[in-house]
């Protein structure tokens, strides 16, 4: 346990969960979109590489925090009961605010180093979302499997 929470486990009680994988992928996907947005807003010659990287990470983390805010309300019951059930409880604050954002930032940094990752990761991300939203009964289903269970 670290600061009263497990390192790996259910999102309601752990720093990392199976969705940490998707947050890494999200950082890679958002990184490529942030790059397009930054060049659309400021042509290459108008911004240094260092400033552009800071601007892009700002875009990536802003979108990520916006998603986490929406997700919090969905988990807390601001939508249909089936949606609240699928989310399986309100995420541990450290997971939502710290480790999810670190995974997104790491994904962005991976994208800046290896841009060719963007298409394989986009395919993985779409398949992950379709599988976990349409096939599995709820968001924490994989943690019920003995191989991934934290107990």
Q: What does this molecule look like?
A:
By secondary structure, this protein is mostly helical. The chain has one domain (11-144). Helices cover 64% and strands 4% of the residues. It is built from five helices and two strands. The protein has a two-stranded parallel ribbon with strand order 1-2. Helix 1 (19-41) crosses helix 2 (49-75). The chain is elongated. The two termini are 12 Å apart. 27% of the residues are buried. The model has no long low-confidence stretch (mean pLDDT 91).
- Which structural class do you get from the secondary structure elements? mainly alpha
Mean pLDDT: 91
The level of helicity is 55-70%
Task: Record the strand order, biggest sheet.
Answer: 1-2
Biggest pleated sheet: 2 strands, parallel
Output the radius of gyration: 17 Å
Unreliable sequence segments: none
Shape type: elongated
């Amino acid at each position: 346990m670290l600061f009263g929470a497990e390192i790996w486990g259910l999102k309601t009680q752990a720093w990392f969960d199976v969705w940490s994988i998707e947050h890494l992928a999200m950082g890679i996907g958002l990184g490529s979109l942030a790059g397009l947005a930054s060049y659309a807003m400021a042509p290459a010659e108008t911004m240094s590489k260092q400033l552009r990287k800071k601007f892009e990470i700002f875009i990536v983390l802003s979108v990520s925090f916006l998603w986490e805010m929406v997700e919090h309300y969905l988990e807390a019951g601001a939508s249909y009961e089936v949606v609240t059930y699928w989310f399986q409880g309100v995420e541990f604050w450290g997971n939502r605010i710290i480790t999810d954002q670190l995974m997104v930032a790491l994904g962005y940094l991976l994208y800046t180093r290896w841009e060719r990752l963007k298409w394989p990761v986009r395919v993985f991300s779409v398949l992950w979302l379709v599988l976990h939203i349409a096939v599995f009964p709820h968001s924490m289903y994989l943690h019920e499997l003995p191989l991934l269970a934290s107990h």
